[in-house]
Amino acid sequence: MPNTQTLEISALFSDSSGDYVRVCKHIVDVLNEESGFVALGYPAMAEQHQRAGRLTKFFNFANDVKLSMATTQYQPANRNRYRGYYPAPEIRGFSDKERLDIGPEPGLMAPNLEGSEILSESNPWPSTEPQAGWRLDSLQYFDDLREIAVALLDAIACGLNLERRDTDDLCRGRNGTLRLLNYLPQSPKNLYSNNVPEIVDKTNRWITGIEHVDTTTLTLLWQTYPGLQIKGRDDVWRDVVPPEGGLSIHCGDLFTKLTSGVINGSIHRVLGDGTHRTSVGMFLEPDWATVIRPPNVDEGLSYAEHLLGVFSTRKKQARRY
Ligand SMILES: [Fe+2]
Q1: Under 8 Å between Cβ of 126 and 62
Q2: Antiparallel, parallel or unpaired: β 36-40 and 6-8
Q3: What does the pLDDT look like over 70-114, one tens digit per residue?
């Protein structure tokens, strides 16, 4: 299987570089054909790489600490239903992972819609830190990666000659989600305990994250071990194998109409081979009231309406991955 391309994006952050437009057009060409790439050369890459590693120390906490931040679904005494900790299933299987979702701080005002209170939730935090400065690190990483995502969206607008106001609406607020993910190591005894893994490649890797398109504007992902794959326009899956500090970049479902199909929302999935893997994703999202045009929906609607619709569909479909 081929790998995604690696692009050096430092020109996007340097006023003096004459390379800005060339890099913008190259990003658009790669997204058009391959739907994603690995970015290197963003500001303070080495420090950000260290910081992302520190954030995943959260998963070293004892279960009772993590569960103190779990959503109501897993810990009925807690009030948070959206931001917070999502544990792995108690019966271990082949695709088990735990995660922590962190939103903007302070939380954003929720629009007046049924069920929308969850969108203005504040973040739960642990009473102690897994490492000194962890909470501040989390918020700093949120802000810094969000800025990189906005710079990438600006670059895509430039590369496509889009009106900046069309993309500005999608990113100029504060919304987003920082997601820490811990794909637990899988021992052969757990492998078939609650379902049969779907083996999909010659090296016997199996699906641990089913293919989907993110409900975002843009997604940036730091990761400690390969497994993420992105499907290009040619229907070929490409492995994402970032060098140290590299961030994989893929597009959310808002791109298809925005770019008249020049760039589609990236179809991606995660494969596993039993090895422990952690990742940290930054999902760049419009503020709740922003009117968006998702695929398969005829009229514009607010991002809050769109997301609440997605949540309700997922609840009905409740899936294993
Ligand atoms: Fe995703």
Answers
A1: no
A2: parallel
A3: 999 999 999 999 999 999 988 888 889 999 999 999 999 988 899
Distance 98 CA to ligand 1 centre (A): 15
Q: Is the dihedral of CA 185, 65, 194, 222 positive or negative?
A: negative
Ligand 1 centre and the CA of 213: distance in Å?
Answer: 6
Cα(15) to ligand 1 centroid in Å equals: 32
Give the DSSP H or E segment for 210.
strand 206-212
Distance 194 CA to ligand 1 centre (A): 23
pLDDT per residue as tens digits for the range 206-249: 999 999 999 899 999 999 999 999 999 999 999 999 999 999 99
Residue 321, pLDDT score: 38
Q: Give the pLDDT confidence of 297-318 residue by residue, as tens digits.
A: 888 899 999 999 888 887 776 5
Rounded distance, CA 64 to CA 227, Å?
29
How remote is the CA of residue 18 from the centroid of ligand 1, in Å?
34
- 139: how many CB neighbours lie within 10 A of its CB? 14
**CB of 121 within 8 A of CB of 85?**
no
The alpha carbon of 268 and the centre of ligand 1 are apart by a number of angstroms equal to 7
Pairing verdict, β 247-251 and 36-40: antiparallel
Please give the domain boundaries of the chain with CATH numbers for all domains: 6-285 (2.60.120.330)
Instruction: Give 186 Cα–ligand 1 centroid separation in angstroms.
Output: 21
Q: At what angle do helices 134-160 and 164-171 cross, to 10 degrees?
A: 160
